[in-house]
Amino acid sequence: MGRAEKASLTGKICKGKDMANGMKIDKSSNVSKCPVEIAGAEGVEVRWLISKDDGAENFAMRMFELAEGGHTPLHTHPHEHEVFIVEGEGLFVCEGLEHPFAAEHFILVPGGKEHRFKNTGESILRFLCVIPADAG
Amino acid sequence: MGRAEKASLTGKICKGKDMANGMKIDKSSNVSKCPVEIAGAEGVEVRWLISKDDGAENFAMRMFELAEGGHTPLHTHPHEHEVFIVEGEGLFVCEGLEHPFAAEHFILVPGGKEHRFKNTGESILRFLCVIPADAG
Q: Alpha carbon of A132 to those of A19, A128, B36, B38, B72: distances in Å?
């Protein structure tokens, strides 16, 4: 019996998803990942952890995974990104300036600023990126 | 010279915050934490990483830290939470059902459902929690 089960107060322990209550709980690596194939992206994959399809009305949470040397395209959009670095290290390029980051850093990418993420480490770079639900 | 600096293409490397561009980048542990003192909370602290004060119009990102045995209050609100477990293990209680979780799990907490987070591990529990900007 795991520690979580021993700590149960009600005995009503669930495992995995419970969409009956409209909630969703899972390990991020269980969500399938897709390659990002837009121009300017290299070695980028994404897992959509939470989105409008799950009933999240306001914003969506994605996990990006960049292979060694990988980068997102240099791009701009009107909405903000909110990013948290889970693993690895890299450079955040914003309006021509480069900002080094590592695990446990967070980044607010304001709307309308040209930016890119680049993996400069020797292993995978993984980061969460939250966007408004309708931003696509 | 660090790897990030060696990898610089433009030489325009910045360190720490760059509020001039409206962006914000920092290590989460550099953001001061405050105790959560509302009724039903025990051993809970929060760091507001990104909020409306930083110019984030749509949503806010907070890092919650629960001491061993700590828990958030059993509470309900109309908006969704989006959560990512950074460190530790615990139980997510939602509408009376208990869902064990550990690092790298994500949770969509739908609006209007009574819920609580509880640290059931033997060390700190840390998780990101994203809410709409106006949810407070």
A: 22, 14, 27, 29, 26
Between CA A24 and CA B126, with CA A12 as vertex, the angle to 5 degrees is 50
* A–B CB contacts, 8 A cutoff, strictly below: 208
Mean pLDDT within A99-104: 97
Which residue from B minimizes the CA distance to A80?
Answer: B56
ipTM entry: 0.87
Mutate to test the interface with A, among B9, B10, B21, B85 (most CBs of A within 10 A): B21
What tens digit of pLDDT does each residue of B19-63 get?
Answer: 567 889 999 999 999 999 999 999 999 999 999 888 888 889 999
Amino acid occupying residue A136:
G
Residues with Cβ < 8 Å from B88, sequence gap 6 or more? B66, B102, B103, B119, B121, B123, B124, B125, B126, B127
DSSP structure string for A12-24: -B--S--GGGT-E
- The domains of chain A, with CATH numbers, are 31-135 (2.60.120.10)
Of A27, A90, A113, the CB nearest to B105: A27
What's this model's pTM, rounded to 2 decimal places? 0.87
Q: Do A2 and B49 touch (CB under 8 A)?
A: no
